[in-house]
Amino acid sequence: MKVSFRQATVERTGHIPALNQLTCDLEFGAKGAIALLGANGAGKSTFLNAILGLCPLKSGEIEIDGTRLQEIRTHELRRRIGMIFQNADDQLFSQTVYEDVAFGPTHLQISDEEVAERVHHAMDVMGITALAKRDIIRLSGGEKRRVSLAGILAMQPDLLLLDEPTAMLDPRGCRELSECLNKFPAAKLIATHDLVFAEKLCPQCVILKDGSVFAEGKTEELLKDEAMLMECGLA
Ligand SMILES: Nc1ncnc2c1ncn2[C@@H]1O[C@H](COP(=O)(O)OP(=O)(O)O)[C@@H](O)[C@H]1O
Ligand SMILES: [Mg+2]
To answer: Which residues, other chains included, contact 72 with Cβ-Cβ below 8 Å and sequence gap of 6+?
Structure first.
């Protein structure tokens, strides 16, 4: 899958653009992972939301596999691209774990048997089968993350967007999350300022500063450049 931004500008507060004539090409292999790095306010969340069509562009274009975003039907876009929001509580709204994982696939045109099959498979891959009947509000942060991931996995997307996935996790939660992401059969774009996590999961990265691309390339190499990291607020 390929996601291209062409001089994309998004204004949120009115004066300083959240994305400022941003141009970049993200080429994902089938299960490739790219890190989207940047300090607070650099534009990472806006970038992810723009891919989902949730932030209207003031000017410029976004293309998915060469097709302009506005030409892709919302239903199709939602099926192909899933997003893990920064706060799990913005994502999960059913009462039980099973109901939440089943919510997306129930709205696809597939049989009840296939819905059940997908839900069981997704819960198995994310290691939450034992939680199926539990109330969402009684889960830990790490468990909620895995429930969100299972709900998206059950949609069988091509691309998974993650917004600061480690923000509320302890070290064990981070380790379990990396294991789950390694098993997730889709391309991933991970917005984070957690450089250790980014380097572990993503061979390539794009660094944003003030709504534009500041640097891009091999994560391992870029993260060695202390002066550059200082300049964009990552060190
Ligand atoms: N909901 C919003 N309303 C108005 N301005 C926003 C909103 N969200 C973000 N912004 C502004 O857009 C810019 C980019 O923010 P954001 O995309 O959230 O960056 P990041 O995710 O890298 O911290 C910032 O200047 C921020 O203040
Ligand atoms: Mg953000």
So the answer is: 64
Tens of pLDDT, residues 142-195? 999 999 999 999 999 999 999 999 988 899 999 999 999 999 999 999 999 999
Structural domains of the chain in order of their starting residue, each with its CATH number: 2-89+157-231 (3.40.50.300)
The rounded distance, in Å, linking the Cα atoms of 141 and 225 is 33
Which conformational region is residue 211 in: left (phi greater than 0), alpha (psi within -120 to 50 degrees), or beta? Answer: left
Nearest CA owner, ligand 1 atom 7: 12
Q: Enter the pTM of the model.
A: 0.96
Q: How far apart are CA 40 and CA 194, in angstroms?
A: 12
Ligand 1 proximal residues by C-beta, below 6 Å: 12-13, 16, 18, 38, 40-46
Atom of ligand 1 nearest to the CA of 16: 25
The residue whose CA is least distant from atom 3 of ligand 1 is: 12
d(CA 184, CA 149): 8
